[in-house]
Prior knowledge:
Elements: H1 13-23, H2 32-43, H3 48-62, H4 67-75, H5 96-105, H6 110-121, H7 131-136, H8 138-148, H9 154-163, H10 181-189, H11 197-213, H12 215-228, H13 234-240, H14 242-246, H15 250-261
Amino acid sequence: MGEYTPLKYYFNEELAVYLSRLIEPHYPYFNTISFIENIQNKVEDKELKARVAVIGDELKNHLPENYEDALAILLQILGPENEFEEGMFTKGYFLMPVAYFVEKYGLHHFDVSMLAIVEITKRHTSEYAIRPYLSMDIDRCLAYLHDWIINTNSHVRRLVSESTRPRLPWAKKMNPMKNDPINNLRLLENLMKDPSPYVQKSVANHINDLSKDAPEVVLSWIKTYKFHHENVNARIIKHGLRTLIKQKEQEALDLINEIEKR
């Protein structure tokens, strides 16, 4: 086996060269030499997130000043959609600085940025990029999220659950929507019977997040959901209650027993 190389080293001058080659056909004025040199000089002593930020900022500095013009160029380098429910990260790492660009610079261009977030998600992930938008205008985001719930692309449906998780790994903890976990659960309800295991896992992880801060709300919601729905997905619920089960919370244990007996 080869020696493990930390992911942060992927975000270096070689990636700068690769991005330049993708961008140049769509933007002849792109200053490739400056772009590569700036990234090479700035990333050396930095960790992963800081390296991604450097490259995202240099995209901002080297593309048209107008955000929407710059974004239009970046959308042309995304490549084909990921048709599988794996490889979201490993095959799309080069898009992390693009997602960062949208995250940092697109807040005042809400609609075009949300469309970009969807396109990036089909190839990599935008679960981090959308978080500032959720904080800025949850109602406007919810309008998009409800549309994405019925999207035919499982990556987009997963984004609905994953991006709104209160305890999303590698992200700053976020309060439940409108400071009420029931709003999150109502959103997840539309994904409880999703056919994709990839989406199901995200829903379960989201429920588990909520159970750590509002166990009574989560348990009450699951009871109500179980009462009103047949063919409940026991796997989602069991995985979603794993923290409470580990804590031997009796109500959670009883719920799982009931559901598994169906």
